[in-house]
Amino acid sequence: MSFWKQFAICLIVIAAGVTGWAFLVPGARDTLRNAGVPEALVGKAIDPDSAGRAVPAAGGEQAGNRRQGGGSGGNGGGGRNGAVLVVTQAVVPGVVNDRLGAIGTGDAIRSVVVTPQASGLIREILVKSGDRVKQGQIIAKLDSEEQVIAKGQADVALKSAVEKYSLYNNIKSSVSRMDVFDYEIAEQNARLQLQAAQLNLDRRNILAPIDGIVGIMPVNIGDNVSTTTPIVTLDDRTEILVDYWVPERFANTVKVGQAVEATSVARPGKVFSGAVEAIDNRVDPASRTLRMRARIDNAADELRAGMSFSVGMRFDGDQYPAVDPQSVQWDSQGSFVWRVADKTSHKVRVSIVQRNPDYVLVKGDLDNGDLIVTQGLQRVREGGPVRSEGGELAAKEPVT
Predict the structure, then answer these.
(1) Is the model's pLDDT at 233 over the cut of 80?
(2) Which residues fall within 8 angstroms of residue 386, CB to CB, at 6 or more apart?
(3) Are both 293 and 260 inside the same structural domain?
(4) In total, how many domains does the chain have?
(5) Is 323 in the same domain as 339?
(6) 355 and 209 in a common domain
(7) In this predicted model, what pLDDT tens digit does every residue of 312-357 receive, in sequence order?
(8) Closest CA relative to residue 383, chosen from 334, 342, 328
(9) What percent of the chain has pLDDT over 90?
(10) Number of helices and strands (H, E) in the chain?
């Protein structure tokens, strides 16, 4: 084969490739114009020829359009009156940064490790694990024989001091005022000694400092304990405090009293309501998070201290237009969508903010309710006529 024949075949192949690319790729017309291709050649490459025969394209849509246009007197394969058949869907509002999820750890609203106020042997344990106790209830008793004797001695000393003071007070006319005063002081000291003896005796009883539920007791009868020995842990779990950490971008958004919802692995599917109890005064520089504490009602006693919780919070968030993922197209200048207004298509430049499973949130010159082309995008052109008979999708709920 001669060189000129090979050269001619190459030109034909290149022309066919450019024509196919220009016909199939959105924004090809603009690219050719920017490259300096004359408008007449752009029209020949992309639009149907003068005989009404459309340039072939991939898929069956163009063939269907050609068959549809064949009986309409050469309308260019675009359907009725030359308009491209498309499917549109309305723009709906989408919201980002409107919710927060975090993992936290629960603790009882009040929790106390009970230790004795005196040292000694445990003689009696009056509660067991799981019991509910009231404040001031006796949990256990220490040996108290020595304290009982000391109290008895103080009681006798007080009676003696009272008798002497009464006697000298009755005959104070015959004794000095200093002697009467000394016996009065002796009586007061005896009363104080009796109070001290009673206090030491009372401290042999280990009392519950709060209302709560008894945990597992690590001591037994006969154990010798000191003032640092933990006897039992009491939890008041009528409410649960959940500590969790949120990203620092929410530092100026969260507020004390804001509603929260929490779920626990122990109670799957059940949501517990609460509110923000406290917010830390600084952001952790290592994790860039802010510590928060929520109070969760536990009147039914379904939760325990130490449980893990998934905490959720809702905010107003930032609103953006939300479009169908299929509607977003790309060209050399970036992403865009086709907006339909007055049965005419218009290219609108957008930037993607967030991708969701059903919607893409974008930033651009779009309003809620604008019709965006989602199907039939191959033949849509800037300022071109379009129709969507029976092809407009119903607008969905706002995206959150």
Answers:
(1) yes
(2) 83, 84, 85, 86, 340, 343, 344, 345, 373, 376, 380
(3) yes
(4) 4
(5) yes
(6) no
(7) 988 777 788 999 998 999 988 899 999 999 889 999 999 998 887 7
(8) 342
(9) 47
(10) 6, 23
Mean pLDDT over 226-245 rounds to: 94
Expressed as residue numbers, the domain containing 43 is 1-47
> In the numeric block, which tokens belong to residue 136?
């001031």
The answer to whether the CB of 135 falls within 8 A of the CB of 209 is: yes
Q: Are 153 and 288 members of one domain?
A: no
- Whether residue 40 contacts residue 347, with contact meaning beta carbons closer than 8 Å, is answered with no
By three-state DSSP, how is residue 352 classified?
strand
pLDDT by residue (tens digit) across 264-303?
988 888 999 999 999 999 999 999 999 999 999 998 899 9
Strands (E), 248-307: 259-264, 267-284, 289-297
Within 8 A by CB and 6+ apart from 253, the residues are 315
Q: Distance between CA atoms of 35 and 231, rounded to whole angstroms?
A: 86
Beta-strand pair 87-90/371-375: antiparallel
- The pLDDT, as a whole number, for residue 228 is 93
Q: 392-393 and 87-90: which strand pairing?
A: parallel
My answer on whether 219 and 241 are in the same domain is no
> Would you say residue 37 has pLDDT above 50?
yes
